[in-house]
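Input sequence (248 aa), recorded before submission:
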Amino acid sequence: MTEDIIYGKNSILEALNSENREINKIIISNSIHSDSKLNKIKEIAKKNGIIYQFVAKEKFQQYSQYNHQGIIAQVSPIKYTDIEEFITKPHNNETLVILDGVEDSRNLGAIIRSCVCAGVSGIIIPSRRNVQVNSITEKTSAGAINHIPIIKVNSPVNAVQKLKEKDWWIIATDASASDNYYDIDYNNMNTAIIMGAEHSGVSKSLLKLSDYIVKIPMMNNFNSLNVSNALSAIIFEVLRQKLIKINK
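Predicted structure, token format:
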């Protein structure tokens, strides 16, 4: 499966102005000269929080079959869900996942797949400093991406504040936490679980907003569990608790 792309200045400008496509990133050859269209593309991208990056012209060899004019936009194969649209709907004893800094497309795909299997209601990803949905993510999810809302937000902090206003309980993960993830009773509340990247963890600003901070206990002082595996442990514990209550 190849990356979904839009190429050429006119096509990318049209996509930026119409907002009909979710643009993950724009790459620009450092060999092309700046002009009014390119300046406009950069202006709109910056305004909308879309990353654009100048790269060596050799990076465009894989796109040689296209008349790309030295500019390519990588677009998402899905339509993201709006946070306001999600939180205004009724939710009862549901689970939401918030990702904070996940960088690998395959990890994101695996996370999506696990979340669908565990009955998670949605996944929030930041528009910056986090991998966006792409064709690799879609393939790794094995089709699961079509069965769960993916919510892209400019500010995870603002998103968490909105969730708290709607009585969602926020649970962040941190290796230095005193509570284990299975010590929490996940029933009778809407729960948002925050997962950070392996190397940096959940940001301090999100930890401060959290109602609970939990860890996954490790043996041998070896704390390097893949983020998708770590999340699976937690969300299937949430599912286990809910199934026990249902079956009582």
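Checked by second reader. The chain has two domains: 5-75, 83-247.
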